[in-house]
Write a structure and sequence with these properties.
By secondary structure, the chain is an alpha+beta fold. Helices cover about 25% and strands about 25% of the residues. A five-stranded mixed β-sheet has the order 2-1-5-3-4, covered by helices on one side.
């Protein structure tokens, strides 16, 4: 048996559960065995994205003693689109060159 943590965080609180699982268990099995889905109904098991120690992993990733399985929430904004909007705003405000997008020299 090995002991791992299963973590799910919201902006205002985090749920951290320790669980003992058989050696050779997967990240998905740890999530199911922990019962965190019952405590956090926001978790969508159909679209589960997991990580181990801040690195995304597949559901069938085999865990080791002391691993921390993190359940990630879906992104609310596309990072590329957000950066594109910031760049356009900088051009409009004169903080960026309208042709190259580079910083305006003073």
């Amino acid at each position: 048996m090995i002991e791992v943590e299963v973590v799910f965080a919201l902006p205002d609180k985090a749920t951290i559960l320790r669980v003992e699982i058989p050696k050779g268990s997967t990240a998905e099995e740890a999530v199911l065995k922990s019962g965190i889905v019952d405590k956090c109904p926001e978790i969508d098991m159909a679209n589960l994205t997991l990580g181990v120690w801040n690195r995304t992993c597949k559901l069938d990733t085999e865990l080791k003693q002391g691993d921390r399985v993190e359940i990630y929430r879906p992104l609310i904004a596309d990072p590329k689109e957000a950066r594109r909007r910031r760049a356009e705003k900088a051009k409009e405000e004169g903080r960026a060159n309208k042709v190259t997008g580079g910083k305006v020299k003073e």
